[in-house]
From TrEMBL:
Gene3D superfamilies: nmb1532 protein domain like (1.20.120.520). Residues 19-129 form the Hemerythrin-like domain. InterPro entries: Hemerythrin-like. This is Hemerythrin domain-containing protein.
Length: 196
């Protein structure tokens, strides 16, 4: 076990009705998981990487369902802001997929992971700067509460801490491919938002 501990999402009791603080906390969880993947090797790295992949998949899917639609309808110039973010998210997903096919002990793994980390952090800063700031200014309380509910519901699908026990890697793998996880996240978010 590495001494790097990534706190379990939700352990900090972030205000459950504050969608921006939830998303910012997830940006921090993603950063911590990158640290954990970089600091480990072998099975530990494999396990930390699975958790990173899951959180990134769930986080980006939830943003696509919750944050981007809000920015499109409520922010001047929102269409372009969202298009730029979607381009970044697409690129990150492609790089994630190529890393996902690689053995984490492959010498090409770490350089690609560091590149991905850089891109993901640039993307997160752009979201905070061009999207979250508008959500913070919104006064539609019902809308904000629905968004927060959706982000919480999605978050429950991506544990940031390893499962206890030696079978953790196998368990994480058994949770299924990323595309299926994204589909399930979409359903969960839409239900929580009160849609179909
Ligand atoms: Fe995003
Ligand atoms: Fe984000």
């Amino acid at each position: 076990m590495s001494e790097l501990q990534t706190p379990q999402a939700g352990d900090d009791h972030a205000a459950d009705n504050d969608v921006v603080s939830l998303l910012m906390r997830q940006h921090g969880d993603i950063r911590n998981l990158f640290d954990e993947v970089e600091a480990t090797a072998g099975d530990e790295r494999r396990d930390a990487f699975r958790r990173l992949v899951r959180l990134l998949a769930v986080h980006e899917t939830a943003e696509e369902e919750v944050v981007h639609p809000f920015v499109r309808r409520a922010v001047a110039g929102g269409e372009q802001i969202v298009e730029d973010r979607l381009t970044e998210e697409r690129e990150a997903k492609e790089m994630l997929a190529s890393l996902d096919e690689m053995d984490p002990d492959d010498p090409r793994f770490l350089p690609q992971l560091i590149q991905l980390r850089h891109d993901v952090q640039t993307h997160a800063r752009a979201e905070e700067r061009y999207e979250f700031i508008h959500i913070r200014r919104s006064t539609d309380v019902t809308d904000l509460a629905a968004m927060a509910r959706a982000i919480k519901a999605a978050e429950a699908m991506a544990p940031t801490r390893p499962h206890p026990g030696v079978e953790s890697a196998a368990k994480n793998m058994a949770l299924g491919p990323v595309a299926a996880l994204m589909d399930r996240t979409k359903d969960t978010v839409r239900k929580a938002m009160g849609g179909s």
